[in-house]
Amino acid sequence: MVNYGICLTTRSSVRGYIAKRLTIAGFALALWMGTTGAAKAAQVDDLERHAFLHAIAEVETGGNARAIGRKGERGMFQFTRTTWRLHSQRAFADAHIPSVSFEIAARHYDWLYDGLLRNGRQPTPYLMAAAWNAGLGRVVNGQLPRSSRDYATRVVNIVSVTKPSIPVAIAVEPAILIASDR
Prior knowledge:
By secondary structure, the chain is an all-alpha fold. It has a single domain, classed as Lysozyme, CATH 1.10.530. It has eight helices and no strands. The longest helix is centred in the N-terminal third of the chain and has 25 residues.
């Protein structure tokens, strides 16, 4: 796996991925410029979610829809059976179908986003990625292991390249940086 926290251009596949994402972002921006008002705000949210989910898939599996993790996680987003059941009635094997997996990932994104808001946290891409990796409770309680902080940094770095309006150094809360390194 490429460590996106250190360098984004160490492999040609990463450069190709980034170029593809920038092309998509440019097309989306052109569409967005013709829109006004509340529709524009909704499109910005959709673009941010889309960029975030693609970054998660890239960090988790390199976008491999057939991936199966060491603990039985499935699909490009590496869903656990519990997370899958939280958002879907479909068979867990359907996590390998990209369109279905992306739909469930979007539901999980919304669930994490709302959970952070309910707990008084700003749902930044960093905190969303940390919650995706370590769980909502650990983010809310400020108990992130180092591996989850590194994971969140890699996701934010990819999001910042694919969606330039999100800065790389998204507000990282001090309480999370102080958390134990389990």
